[in-house]
Each structure stands twice: as C-alpha cells, then as structure tokens.
C-alpha cells in the first residue's frame, strides 16, 4: 500500500474536471529531501544530497563503564563453568554461505516498468514533463 503525501494546499494538485479521481501533485510541491526506504536497504544510486544536521554532533559522551547486564552475564558464566568443571569455548563456524556467486540480471522489475508507464501516461495527459532537480539544496 502506498502512502500518498497530503498537500499543504488543495490547489497544489493538478486535475481536470473530466477525471474526478485523477490527481497529480507536481514535482515542485513534493518534498524530495528524504528517502526512508531506499537508503535503509542499501540503494544509493539515487541518493539525496547531504545536508548539515543543524545541530552539534561532536559532543562529549560519558563512559559509565561496563553495563550491569554484561557484568551479571560474565559472573553467571564464571559460576556455571566452575559448577560444571567445564570451560565454555564457543565454536565459531566459518561462514557457511558462499558469497562469491553471480546474481542473475532479470532486467527492470515489472513494478518499475508500470511506474514509468504511469508517469509517461500522466505527463502526456497533463501535457507536463516532471523535472526533478537533484542538485537543489534546501
């Protein structure tokens, strides 16, 4: 399900009287500064320009030492090893998955093709070409 952003003003939508349910918000009115999905899954091809955070990030972070849960776990492990007369040595496996494999290229996904087709149809119907300025700084 797609969440359609609501406009600040209903006049920002472009529509024709003959198509009651056909609304398109033009590129100038869209907030293109955030991509919550793409960057979180590693898509960096179309990343947004970086902006300054607007607040200091180089601040002092106090070190309160080892967390109490970690201390308790180490104490419990030591007492269990002593009670069982056995030293726990975890066996770390080599990575069981081969990562040097060829990923097949099946071409552009059908959903992407549908999106481009929808965009082209809408641009033709509205006689408007959507232009996105990726170099624009907010």
Q: What do these coordinates show?
A:
With 138 residues, this protein is mostly helical. The protein is built from two helices and two strands; from the N terminus they run ββαα. Strands 1-2 form a two-stranded antiparallel ribbon. The protein starts with 12 loop residues before the first strand and ends in a 12-residue tail after the last helix.
Q: Can you list the strand order of the major beta sheet?
A: 1-2
Radius of gyration over C-alpha positions, nearest whole angstrom = 27 Å
- Element pattern in H and E: EEHH
The shape is elongated
The largest β sheet comes out as: 2 strands, antiparallel
Query: pLDDT below 50 for ≥5 consecutive residues: which ranges?
Result: 15-23
- Helical proportion, percent range: 10-25%
Please state the structural category: mainly alpha
Strand content: under 5%
Short description:
The protein has 138 residues and is an all-alpha fold.
Question: How would the blueprint of this fold be written?
Answer:
Blueprint: E1 13-14, E2 24-25, H1 68-84, H2 110-126
Antiparallel strand pairs: 1-2
């Amino acid at each position: 399900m797609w969440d359609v952003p609501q406009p600040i003003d209903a006049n920002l939508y472009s529509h024709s009287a003959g198509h009651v349910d056909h609304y398109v918000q033009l590129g100038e009115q869209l907030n293109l500064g955030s991509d919550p999905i793409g960057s979180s899954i590693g898509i960096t091809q179309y990343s947004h320009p970086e902006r300054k955070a607007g607040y200091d990030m180089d601040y002092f972070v106090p070190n309160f030492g080892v967390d109490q849960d970690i201390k308790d776990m180490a104490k419990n492990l030591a007492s269990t090893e002593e009670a069982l007369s056995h030293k726990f040595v975890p066996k770390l496996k080599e990575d069981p998955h081969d990562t040097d494999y060829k990923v097949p290229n099946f071409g552009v996904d059908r959903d992407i093709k549908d999106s481009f087709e929808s965009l082209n149809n809408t641009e033709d119907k509205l006689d408007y070409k959507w232009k996105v300025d990726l170099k624009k700084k907010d």
